[in-house]
Amino acid sequence: MTESSSSLTLAQLVPLWQIHLKAERLSPRSVKSYGEALWRLDAWLVAEDRSTEVAEISKRTLEAWMVALSETITRSGEPMKPSSVACTSAGRSSSSAGPRRRAS
Fold first, then answer.
1. Cβ atoms < 10 Å from Cβ of 50
2. Which of 40, 43, 74, 77 is deepest in the core (most CB within 10 A)?
3. The whole model's pTM is what?
4. Are 54 and 5 in contact (CB under 8 A)?
């Protein structure tokens, strides 16, 4: 890849990061889970019309994603618990489906 890492999009970086995680000998389940969390972030960025360039993803953007996750309705019809938000944003979610936002 000839692009500098500062101009990579999240979608370009995820597979590279997963290779790194595999090289670090993380479990296949962890690699998959962490990748899913980043794909969910990427989908949210696109849906919110935000930049997916890694260099442009700010702390405030990540905080906004965390808020969006906290407003996610689970299968039980309840909002996500804070511990679930922390796990999902850290890549430890077992759900492959994207989050559903709570109706405003």
1. 15
2. 40
3. 0.69
4. yes
What does the DSSP assignment read for 26-78? --HHHHHHHHHHHHHHHHHHHHTT---BGGG--HHHHHHHHHHHHTBB-TTSS
Sign of CA dihedral 22, 24, 1, 98: positive
At position 97, the amino acid (one-letter code) is A
Q: What is the DSSP letter of 98?
A: P
Q: What is the pLDDT of residue 61?
A: 96
DSSP 8-state assignment for residue 17: H
Residue with tokens 């906004």: 64
Q: What's 54's DSSP letter?
A: G
- What letter represents residue 38's amino acid? L
Domain map (residue ranges) of the chain = 7-90
Residues in the chain: 104
